[in-house]
Amino acid sequence: MTTQPVELTVHSSQPYNAEPPRSALADHDLTPLDAFYHRNHAPERPRIDPATWTLRVDGMVERPATFSLGALRERFREHTEVVTLQCAGNRRAGLMAVADLPGETPWGPGATGTARWAGVRLADVLREVGVEPGASDVVLAGADLPEESDGGPYEVSVPLEKALAPEVLLAWSMDDAPLPAAHGAPVRVVVPGWIGARSVKWLERVTVTDGPSHGHHQAVAYRLLPADASPAPGRGVPLGPIAVNADVLAPDDDAEVAAGPVRVSGYALAGGERTVVRVDVSVDGGATWRQADLEPQAGRWSWRLWHTELDLPAGTTRVTARAWDSAAGVQPADPAELWNPKGYVNNAWAHVTLHASARDDG
Amino acid sequence: MTTQPVELTVHSSQPYNAEPPRSALADHDLTPLDAFYHRNHAPERPRIDPATWTLRVDGMVERPATFSLGALRERFREHTEVVTLQCAGNRRAGLMAVADLPGETPWGPGATGTARWAGVRLADVLREVGVEPGASDVVLAGADLPEESDGGPYEVSVPLEKALAPEVLLAWSMDDAPLPAAHGAPVRVVVPGWIGARSVKWLERVTVTDGPSHGHHQAVAYRLLPADASPAPGRGVPLGPIAVNADVLAPDDDAEVAAGPVRVSGYALAGGERTVVRVDVSVDGGATWRQADLEPQAGRWSWRLWHTELDLPAGTTRVTARAWDSAAGVQPADPAELWNPKGYVNNAWAHVTLHASARDDG
């Protein structure tokens, strides 16, 4: 472990999209704050005064209401969850290596991170205002103004069933400190097990509806398209829960190491309601596998860190990792099987290449 | 559709294990009763008189109780669910083609089927007897006596959380008729989304516990093992929910068809809490895919039937199908990636080979 500042790879500045190197994520139950990825949709970050901020809750509810931050804190019990967030575009670079994805951000392995989030349950707020019969979805709108949103705010939705799940938080705290502005202060949504795009930052409005959001980021983007389709409203399948995924975090890709015993570590994330039950590591491209040691989870909704020790010969070795979820679902081998026109959810087997030099025993 | 009797492939007679040809499953929301697979663990089928049958409910409960069939019917509301059951060994033959699995039943595509089940919710029964704090699992024991059970009955368990889910039934009816003896009469468990082995037939005892069953079929069998491991108590991962799977059901494998438009149909099953969101069909080994048409589901827990029309050239075409679940999870390509020492959960891409003869246009 070092205490050097983490240097992020900045993919764009407006909107600000940046990720840490994989090594900055390695072996941390909770991702250091300066290594937490930034995924923005609007060119400018909203500036919100927490003292005047309010949350409007309306739509198909019996008692529409507006809550100040103080009212949320007084009215509802605070809950804490350790949750891994993961951008739907994480590992997109692996899909771009199969075929180009013009205009899409070439995320590497770092568009994921884990934090301890605290705030109130969305379910408690919804119960307070009373959801009307016939409601099916909850639209979440932020204060940020993406260009694709036609002047409106960033807006997506989650099914009511998930919105009422106890793990979904309106969070004002990240790792026991006030939520930073860059991560959505004063209040953001945290939707465990689902693509990061549903965890709306700078939350301003919660609207109960009888159908999913018609906004760009629900109806056009963040959808799984067949390889030969182009994005259009309602086309493809909306991404919600994420599929089982894993990555090697240390050593870094293309690292120089000494031949002999080398500790390899990473994370796995089951997605949705599932858990990680096994992680396999291979040095022969998947012909044979060993099982990595799984570390205890920091929380039900956090990633599972893993590690193993490989005995590397001098020369170049490609290390492969894959995870299994609690339904015996396993990552597919090849990103070519998964390539899709928006480049989402690359959960193909993970690889790093290690260069081992013979040890100087003289 | 024909009304010819279905000829089952009998893998063994004691225990009786038999499956229909895939064509007998094709295009039926509900599997015809004579095409429903038989998976038994004991050499002899129990003979139970429904008039004297009782269900004992005990363990970590406040009020242990014994229910007759009449008492179950009177005390609790009847519920109906259309549910697809699938043996964990379904499609094992595809794994055996990778490497032999001595002593295991070579199930083809037919160890799955869908029925309308009616009975009472296990949750209602558990609430009636009062589950004690600290309970975590529910052990389900049948009247059948497998040789591996050391004189005891067939016994497995499900986590309490699943046992309390509204979809889990103690069923006495199959397709609006009394449950047949061969399928577990008078009462069997139906655990939607999970491997068939948890849907205990000839149910006699429900025991609430603070840990999973120690019985052979929970602690040794029905576990996912690494390729180089051998079965032993507690080794590997218990199989519960099943991973996304699909198969081509018609035309049959190696069928002779006329060149030109050919209707291809099959099923897909997401497993666990997930749903099927897309089915892809390929005639070039997965290089390119078309999307099949998905039919309405007969129920939340039933398979999703699909069909498409292929324009087949004269000669041999290998048709491939794969399904995606609602978390963007997709079937892996190659059964070699999945091979495991007990041969469970082969959810690799499905294939049939079709032989098309040129049409006689003279």
What does it look like?
2 copies of one chain form a homodimer. Chain A is mainly beta. Chain A has 2 domains: 9-238, Sulfite Oxidase, Chain A, domain 2 (Alpha-Beta Complex); 245-357, Immunoglobulin-like (Sandwich). Chain A is built from 6 helices and 23 strands. Chain A has helices spanning 22-25, 69-75, 92-96, 122-129, 160-163, 216-219, and strands at residues 9-13, 16-19, 54-59, 65-68, 79-86, 112-121, 137-142, 155-159, 169-174, 177-178, 188-190, 203-209, 223-224, 237-238, 245-250, 255-258, 260-269, 276-282, 290-291, 293-294, 304-312, 315-325, 350-357. A 5-stranded mixed beta sheet of chain A has the order 4-3-12-7-8. In chain A, strands 5, 6, 9, 10 and 11 form a 5-stranded antiparallel beta sheet that branches. Chain A has a 5-stranded mixed beta sheet with strand order 16-23-22-18-19, with no helix packed on it. In chain A, a hairpin with a 5-residue loop joins β3 (54-59) and β4 (65-68). The two termini of chain A are 29 Å apart. The mean pLDDT of chain A is 96. At the A-B interface, β18 of A face β18 of B.
